[in-house]
Amino acid sequence: MSDATPEREFMEYDVLIVGGGPAGLSAAIRLRQLAAEQDFDLSVCLIEKGSEVGAHILSGAVIDPIGLNKLIPDWKEQGAPLDTPVTSDHFIYLGPAGSITIPSFLYPPLMNNHGNYIGSLANLCRWLATKAEELGVEIYPGFAGAEVLYNEDGSVRGVATGDMGIGKDGHHKDSYTRGMELRAKYTLFAEGARGSLTKELIRKFKLDEGRDPQKFGIGLKEVWEIDPAKHQKGKVQHTLGWPLNDQTGGGSFLYHFGENLVSVGFVVHLNYKNPYLSPFDEFQRFKTHPAIRDTFEGGKRIAYGARAITEGGFQSVPKLVFPGGALIGCSAGFVNVPRIKGSHNAMLTGMMGAEAAFEAVKAGRQSDELSAYADAYIDSPVYKDLKRVRNVKPFLSRFGTIIGMGFSFFDMWMNNLGIGLPFTLKHGKADHETLKKASECKPIDYPKPDGKVSFDKLSSVFMSATNHEEDQPVHLRLKDPAIPIAYNLPTFAEPAQRYCPAGVYEVVRDADGSNPRFQINAQNCVHCKTCDIKDPTQNINWTVPEGGGGPNYPNM
Questions:
Q1: What is the pLDDT of residue 128?
Q2: What angle do CA 177, 178, 184 make, to 5 degrees?
Q3: Cys bridge to 356: 41, 222, 373, 522, which one at CB 3.0-4.6 A?
Q4: Is 333 helix (H, G, I), strand (E, B) or coil?
Q5: Which residues of the chain fall short of a pLDDT of 50?
Q6: 429-433 long-range contacts, Cβ below 8 Å, gap at least 24?
Q7: Cβ atoms within 10 A of the Cβ of 318, count?
Q8: Which residues pair with 525 in a beta bridge?
Q9: Distance of alpha carbon 504 from alpha carbon 497, whole angstroms
């Protein structure tokens, strides 16, 4: 077939939504609800890069139903897959061999999980997609937004999906299909943390001007089927401490739900300093702690995945609107860090963005700024939710886990009493700027996995059902191919080998240890975006692979 590039075909809509997570689906549903209520003809399209809605969704998840209550008040009667209310809440500090349970009366009230539900956010998104389609939303899974389209005046016109059937060497295979242009009066970007198109929009429109750098964590998660005798349906448990040291932020979650299922996960804040740290191996080591291991012994691991989490909160929320579109959900970063929750805020901002877009289209407008959405955010529960915990992350970063959590608890209690601190702490450096040189740090000797409660990366990636068409251009692009070996290896012991939770990046050598080369195993990528965030020289640019590629998470 000729490599001549044909013109793209196009489709036009009133509103286009990029991303099938809780924010994007809530926006789609709310748009069509308003259209039905006001008898207004409104076309809505949603594209999702995963093979199906939910395939790339990964979250703890303990879900605050505030967003769902507002979107679909009778969600229980309609069969939403949330049937495990939280029944008990536990907060534990782990030491190397022992643990201390923190009494519940010390928790700030906002950290209480009663009234929330344990479940699979992926399955909730699958259910929301059926509701959206019933209302008339066109949903196209397996189509990745690869390029932002602009009008002549610079406003956003929509997005183009990626071309399919391009070989590694760039030639057009027999299966080559040109991407489609999806044009809209307004485009809502709901890509989740560190979205590739969102990153471009923030840079182009200077949406982060005057804001603190966005901060991130990496969340690693497994789902286990455990011994029924050990299952405590509705139990929520969080830990701080071991195996992380006091200067490395992070912690764990362990949620009992469904029929003998447990979600277990580990979050490492990506402002860590030691380049030898491996978040994946810290997670595996965590499960061997005496206070944790017994839950999993005799059980079976049935799923694994990883995803970056926005942690900047109040100080880091960018400007939400630009000509022709807006950022909703974790594209903008609405996670409440101490609550370890963001889906409720994602849904609420999705609805706010939808309401602003609907009113604009109804008024005959297009391609301008949806200022009503930005104004609604300032007056919303989301703004209040983030403002009252705005100093938690900076406290942890400045003072370490123990002292930082003490200050954080005090601040959250004061906020609860209506006497919040009168200042907002800054985040400081971006996460890619925090690594120390390898020469200043001690390598970490991680124990070998036992194959019972701890495992290696490759067997874990297998459990994520990750799949990419192998003969396609590598979607993990190096701005300068020389940097990994020439600079990152001698300076930072090339940390990509360790911060990636899927074994994508390797330094390979000849048999005698000479001739180091940087190898990218792109087919392993679980789309967590950690490399795009943590690479110290910002040399790695995560772009979308062919639509439908990546993990296929069940029940995550």
A1: 98
A2: 135
A3: 373
A4: coil
A5: 1-2
A6: 429/213, 429/271, 430/213, 430/214, 430/215, 431/213, 431/215, 431/216, 431/270, 431/271, 431/533, 431/534, 432/533, 432/534, 432/535, 432/536, 432/537, 432/538, 433/536
A7: 22
A8: none
A9: 8
